[in-house]
Amino acid sequence: MIVAEQKPLAEIKEILEDYRKVLVVGCGTCVTVCLAGGEKEVAILASSLRMATRLDGHPVAMDEATVQRQCEWEYIDPLRERLDGYDAILSLGCGVGVQTLAERFPNKRVLPGLNTKFMGLPTEQGVWEERCQACGDCILDLTGGICPIARCSKQLLNGPCGGSQRGKCEVSSETSCAWQLIYDRMAARGQLDRLLQIQPAKNWSTSRDGGPRRIIREDLRALKDGD
Amino acid sequence: MTQPGTNGYYVGSNLEKVLRSGQFVVTGELGPPQGWKREDIERKAKLLKGIVDAVNLTDNQTAIVRMSSIAAGRILIENGLEPIIQMTCRDRNRLSMQSDLLGAYALGIRNILALSGDHQNFGNHPFAKNVHDIDSLQFIQVIRGLGSGTFQCGDKVVGGPMPMLVGAAANPFGDPFEFRPLRLAKKVAAGAHFVQTQLIYDMDRFRKFMEKVVEMGLHEKVCILAGVGPLKSSGAARYMRDKVPGMIVGDYYVNEMERAVAGIPKEDKVGRRDAWQKRGIELCVEQIQQVREIKGVVGIHIMAIEWEEAVKPIVERAGLLPRPTFN
Questions:
Q1: Which residues of A touch B173 (CB under 8 A)?
Q2: Taking CB atoms and an 8 Å cutoff, what residues of chain A touch B245?
Q3: CB-CB: which of A167, A170, A196 is closest to B185?
Q4: Cβ contacts (< 8 Å) between A205 and chain B: which residues?
Q5: Which is deepest, A28, A83, A158, B139, by most CB within 10 Å?
Q6: Looking at the structure, do residues A108 and A151 belong to the same domain, yes or no?
Q7: Interface test with B, best of A143, A146, A165 (most B CBs within 10 A)
Q8: What is the band of A223 on the pLDDT scale with cuts at 50, 70, 90?
């Protein structure tokens, strides 16, 4: 899932400074699951902002709405009829959600209430970890199902750097060394020989380095055009 | 593999000549300044001239901005020393690395050490973006490619091959320990000519590492220089033991450094410093004697950053002076 966390309240207040009536829009998908921007978080944030702006002497009216997915037109289109009278939309969706709203409702100010962090999973209650960087050319078959692009601080492809110690990354004692994990898994499978092959320089053109990415499925497009 | 005009050598650098001669090799290290004064390089260079066979110039070491290792390397050449420029994968992509290497070669630099690079969050620009377009192993391949006249993309280098002696780092004190000789094997397969190890303050672990390296026959394919260096104080020893990722400092070294100042009052700062420095140099000489007895070690790499004065007494007392010269 896409994992996000809420911006600090003070920053959100600053973002909303010039607006008097705001619709806070949550998203029912990833950010609901990671407890950052679902219906419940929308309610809590809206109520905190109502209180805080009232105490500041510049009350901002806050209404709430949560759609099932902010990143698809069909789920956000029904919002259109609710938007009259609002100065701004505060999105508690991920960066994709914010942009989808902004693109669909260009006359409204759409503002971000979350910081989108990464693609990952909850590893325990209250802890989320990154797992994928969407490099566009998956190599998990080579590395025992553990991604060194997303999980090695230096994105090394040929083994651990000199800073790996006692299973931890040199960057933080909280972070596992991805190459220790890869080594352990390959060793357990009896496949260490695979780590001896030199992985060549990666083609980053499939990643963000190649420019904004797009997928076109002609088979699906044809279906739509066909009827 | 040989080039015209290098008399049968691959690059003909002093480092290559000493390595090939079978004599015990001594390399040193010089940290370029966090500024632009060439005198800072020249002052340190004087302390190393004639004492070591070649000098590593660090590349923004510990992710702190310093004068370029290539520029500093050229200053060394102008002062009659031979540089080994270090280059990390942290700060440059493959375009920039190759372009800088073309420049380095044009400036007469023939030795390079290919490194991953410390993460930028250790340094003075922790908010920087890192690159890691290629890793240190792929970097070795890129340098060897330039050596045969080909850029990483396959295009030809205008002017033809530019061979450089390629070094790699090895850290026997990083984990997983069992993978360390295998990673070295990969670096050898990628084309490394020589290897400089992390500072050795755990001789037993280093011996175990070398046993495996010799068992794999890697010592016959690559020249292994053992990393040594003088400790400055017991605090420095403890800091390296407790705080520096990828280092192991045995209690022996910490205890010896503490013992060195036993009985000297804390207020006597000069007395303590002198006692520490004396013992630090003695321990380094002892390290050299120990690594010389380990099969597969063909030389040492002395890291005495910001204490270049210590290198001469260390090399002298280890019986490694004068250094070989070639016509």
A1: 162, 165
A2: 163-165, 170
A3: A196
A4: none
A5: B139
A6: no
A7: A165
A8: confident
**Would you say residue B2 has pLDDT above 50?**
no
The pTM for the full model equals 0.95
Q: Which of A159, A165, A201 sits opposite B134 (nearest CB)?
A: A201
Judge whether A109 lies within some domain. Answer: yes
Instruction: Answer yes or no: is pLDDT of B1 > 50.
Output: no
**B135 and chain A in contact, CB less than 8 A:** yes
CATH number at residue A14: 3.40.50
Task: State whether A176 and A101 are in the same domain.
Answer: no
- Per-residue pLDDT at A225: 57
Which chain B positions have a beta carbon within 8 Å of A170's beta carbon? Answer: 118-119, 122, 245-246
Query: Structurally, how many domains does chain A consist of?
Result: 2
Q: Which residues of A touch B94 (CB under 8 A)?
A: 201
Q: Quick one: pLDDT at residue B5?
A: 55
Closest approach of chain B CAs to the CA of A113, in angstroms? 23
Task: Identify whether A81 is part of a domain.
Answer: yes
Does residue B9 register a pLDDT over 90? yes
- Any chain A CB within 8 A of the CB of B190? yes
Verify that A155 and A83 share a domain, yes or no. no
Range of the domain at A201: 135-210
pLDDT of residue B6: 74
Which domains, from first to last, does chain B contain? Answer: 14-231+295-317 (3.20.20.220)
Mean pLDDT of B277-306: 97
Instruction: Name residues whose C-beta falls within 8 Å of residue A88's C-beta, 6 or more positions apart in sequence.
Output: A16, A19, A21, A22, A23, A108, A109, A110, A111
B94 in contact with chain A, both atoms CB, cutoff 8 A:
yes
Of B90, B121, B183, the CB nearest to A159: B183
Contacts of B171 in chain A (CB under 8 A): 162
> Which residue in chain A has the smallest CA separation from B175?
A165
Residues A179 and A81 in one domain: no
Question: What percent of chain B lies above the pLDDT cut of 90?
Answer: 96
The chain-wide mean pLDDT, for chain A, equals: 96
Q: Cβ A158–B135 below 8 Å, yes or no?
A: yes
Report yes or no on A128 lying in a domain. Answer: no
